[in-house]
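anyone else get weird line breaks when pasting these?? whatever heres mine. first is seq + tokens for prot A
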Amino acid sequence: MRAFVYFVLPLLLAVGSSEQAAAKSMVTANGSRPGTYEVKHADGTLTHTTLNADGSYRDVAANGKLEAKGKWSVAGGKTCFAPSTKGAQAMCFKEAPAAKDGSFTATPDKGKPVMVKPAK
């Protein structure tokens, strides 16, 4: 039994540390880091999207209502969102390079572009 623990424990620690390293290095398709972003939609409405380093996200309306939550990832040069919230649809965005202030335009596969900037 002791030999098993000595063999398996280092493997588990290595897997855990590599997952932590991957989470710390997660960035969007344009290189933006996890954090909270203000998103201005084409109709003028504002939402706040929080991208977490563990690959989870939350979209919150200006009135504080949770609109969607789930997982985010980068695929095919786009930042993609896979919501777990009932009624919310998966969506990928092609992002323009970020300006010096961290703002950028994100264009969904379907729909109008949104303006994104780090929340204050």
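and prot B, same format (seq, then tokens)
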Amino acid sequence: MLGTMCVMTRTSSRFESAYTHSRIFEGSGESDVLRLLFGQLPSSVTGPASPEQASDSFPVSPHYACALADLARQRGFDGYLLNVECRLRGGPEQTRALTTWIGLLRHHLKTEIGDHAEVIWYDSIVYTGALAWQDRLNNHNLVFHPPSTGFFTNYSVGAAGIST
């Protein structure tokens, strides 16, 4: 796998095209998204913390944003496609934290690899935290656009969903 990634990185560089890596969180991936945003979830004497216990009172952690930016620099790719296809039960508070974290990732990528860094957001969840593909950029998913460098709409959009 690493050999294939090196060949793809060299080839994309030769043709001056961006090469991004995907971070996909699906199904029961909410706890992984929360770990990305807040760091390792704390545990207690009564057992591990559950995603319901995470709230906007937790500060967003730059740990994984820094680690992913460093990985991009080390491996020679230009950024990430972020695909969060799992519901965030914390609702708008957690989506606000996610948009803050996307901004952190963008900042650290630009610091590590330069202004050409890419953070592409995939159309999957909306500002309420619900998993609801919109097939276009609209008021339900717009919050994810400003901190990213691009928007990748759901690939089921048809000609009727595209206006000129």
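btw re prot B: The beta strands are 20-26, 43-44, 47-48, 79-85, 118-122, 150-152. The chain is about 35% helix and 15% strand.
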